[in-house]
Amino acid sequence: MSEKFKITFRFEDGKTPETIIEARRGDSILDTALDNNINLHHNCGGVCACSTCHVYIDNGMELLPEISDSEENFIDRAVNPKLNSRLACQCEINGNVTVTIPDQSVHLGH
Ligand code: FES
User: How far is the centre of ligand 1, averaged over its atoms, from the C-alpha of 87 (Å)?
Assistant: First the structure.
């Protein structure tokens, strides 16, 4: 049986309450969100070729894979990138993390 971790999702939309979801090692934050009916854009289908799966990592950044140059480039094009920005499709889960999902009703970049 594969190891399970807790992913805490917070939402910037001001409506959705915080939710905690169990995830398997090696799943991406994007897959975990989508598997649990959490709305997170993913225009390129999760291959690090857009910036619509942009999220903020509030806790556990050190447990995620290192950011690639290409991920960094796409984050630069996201709306309101911050120091704790990541692309959810590039974040394989390897421990407990807390993630804030930007408001999905606004334009989220390219
Ligand atoms: S879904 Fe396009 S970069 Fe993550």
Answer: 6
Ligand 1 mutation pick, 27, 38, 48, max ligand atoms within 8 A of CB: 48
**What are the pLDDT digits (tens) for 5-25?**
999 999 999 899 999 999 999
DSSP string, 18-76: PEEEEEETT-BHHHHHHHTT-----TT-SSSS-STTEEEEEE-GGGSPPPPHHHHHHHH
pTM value surpassing 0.85: yes
- Find the 43 Cα to ligand 1 centroid distance in Å: 6
CA–centroid distance, 7 to ligand 1, in Å, is 19
pLDDT at residue 110 above 60?
no
Among the four given CATH numbers 3.10.20.30, 1.10.260.40, 3.40.50.2300, 3.10.450.10, the one describing domain 4-16+26-94: 3.10.20.30
Residue extents of the structural domains in the chain: 4-16+26-94
